[in-house]
Amino acid sequence: MFPHASLGGASMRTGPPDDLPDTAETVQISSLALLKMLLHGRAGVPLEVMGLMIGELIDDYTIRVSDVFSMPQTATGQSVEAVDPEYQVHMLDKLSVVGRSEKVVGWYHSHPGFGCWLSGEDVMTARSYEQLTPRSVSVVIDPIQSVRGKVV
């Protein structure tokens, strides 16, 4: 089909507008990072858990997650309610002390048994991380469904 076919005077497009920039990114998650996320998520069932992903920006379109570390939080129900910012700083300091050059590239958390999607609260958390790091990545895992054979 022609990209700008006209039918009855109306323009019909078959693809995205030409003036939109390509913002698609590839996120590579190491086996170690994925396994640690799933183990952390499984250990927290039935509560949600949260952690930070560390890695590097490979180029303008690729982010590599090499490792993760879990974050202690206060959870009275199923959702993650609070994260200790002092712990984040402490862990990042420890990474530099042991010579790890990776930076925080995003965060992850679990939705045990109810699928992988960003809730309204998750979107707000993602936006706060994007304020600090514009290319921050958000990952949601479901340790229950993953144990059933679907890594999600």
UniProtKB/TrEMBL annotation:
Domain MPN: 27-152
Residues spanning the membrane: none
Disordered: annotated segments: 1-22
Gene Ontology MF: a single term: metallopeptidase activity
Pfam families noted in UniProt: JAB (PF01398)
SMART domains for the chain: JAB_MPN
InterPro entries cross-referenced by the UniProt entry: JAMM/MPN+_dom, JAMM_MPN+_peptidase_M67A, MPN
PANTHER family: EUKARYOTIC TRANSLATION INITIATION FACTOR 3 -RELATED
Protein name in UniProt: WGS project CAEQ00000000 data, annotated contig 650
Organism in which the protein naturally occurs: Trypanosoma congolense (strain IL3000)
